[in-house]
Amino acid sequence: MAGQAPPERADAARNRQRILDAALRIVDEEGAKALTMNGVAHASGIGVGTVYRRFGDISALLLALLDHSERRLQAAFLSGPPPLGPGAPAAERLRAFVQTYARHTLDAEELLLAAEKASATARYKSDPYRVVHTHVQMLIREARPELDAPVLAHLLLGAFQPSLLVHLRRELDVSVERLEASLDQLLGALV
Hints:
The chain is an all-alpha fold. It has helices at residues 10-30, 37-44, 48-55, 58-79, 90-107, 109-118, 122-125, 127-143, 149-158, 162-171, 176-190. It has one domain: Tetracycline Repressor, domain 2 (Orthogonal Bundle), CATH 1.10.357.10. The chain has eleven helices and no strands.
């Protein structure tokens, strides 16, 4: 799985967890828009310099908050039961993945949107995105070897941009069911 960090010193691990716990409290109480590095430092009781050294910027901190659910998703599609996990034909796995990824993205919508606003391209450089992209690319290549799988994987995953999902759901009032049906139609045209 992506994002597996080397072992850390016990005090560094405790500080990391305190920072993440404080960030989650802020998000739960005030929303992701209220998250700042200074606010997290204050809420965790850890110096702001340490928070910056540990995470670099707010987008990296937001992506770290998403890490736990990303790891569960990765485990499900890498080693879980079919059709999401191995053992089903590529087209079925891709369809199961798209539906699961849609729900995953909608569940984390606020954090993903805040991370996107903090840095528009940080998501594409993150380990979780690279793992997901590689997986989708592999399934496309297996289902349709004649297609440009690397580019198509990016374009398909582009449907999960947080700002696009917010636009569809909040501004155009597209239901989750309609969104999932449309993703299925899009995928049907691809594979």
